[in-house]
Amino acid sequence: MQNLLSRVEILPPGFLNLFINWEEWVQRDFELPKYTNEKVVIEHTSINPNKSAHIGHLRNSCIGDTLVRLLRRVGYHVEVHNYIDDLGNQLADTVVGLLNIPLSGEYERFGDYCWDLYATTNKEYQTVEKAPI
User: Fold this and answer.
1) 97: buried, middle or exposed (CB in 10 Å: 19+, 13-18, 0-12)?
2) pTM for the whole thing?
3) Are 75 and 34 spatial neighbours (Cβ–Cβ below 8 Å)?
4) Tens place of pLDDT per residue across the chain (133 aa)
5) Distance CA 88, CA 98 (A)
6) How far is CA 106 from CA 7, 94, 110, 131, in A?
7) Is 111 within 8 Å of 52 (Cβ atoms)?
8) What 3-state class would DSSP assign to 41?
9) Which residue from 128, 28, 30 is spatially nearest to 74, judged by alpha carbons?
10) E strands along 4-129, which residues?
């Protein structure tokens, strides 16, 4: 596997970029692993329905789905857990925040305000749950 990467970059806030040395890569023989019939569980998330979708949200779904397909291709019995966000509960928590939690600040978009309000509401739930009765 030596020389398969031409360089590695580490960039803020924690990205790791690997650059493939394609001249070396194309000279390698790659074989698929033998059939195993072992069970594996892959969990990956769906796009968050509470904010505008962009390519970054799609990335995790694509990586998870690709991994599932690759493992099935080489003979694994794959169980997929694809967690779908529950917009109903998240919307209800945001409404609770709108009615009960004052949140100040300047926001360009209402969705950004709701995102912060949702997080603040859930922190408040934790505070209330820990309070003595």
Assistant:
1) buried
2) 0.44
3) yes
4) 568 899 999 988 888 888 999 999 898 887 776 767 789 888 877 766 666 677 777 787 888 889 899 889 888 899 988 766 666 777 888 899 999 998 888 988 888 888 889 889 988 888 876 666 5
5) 15
6) 42, 18, 10, 31
7) yes
8) strand
9) 30
10) 5-11, 15-20, 39-45, 77-83
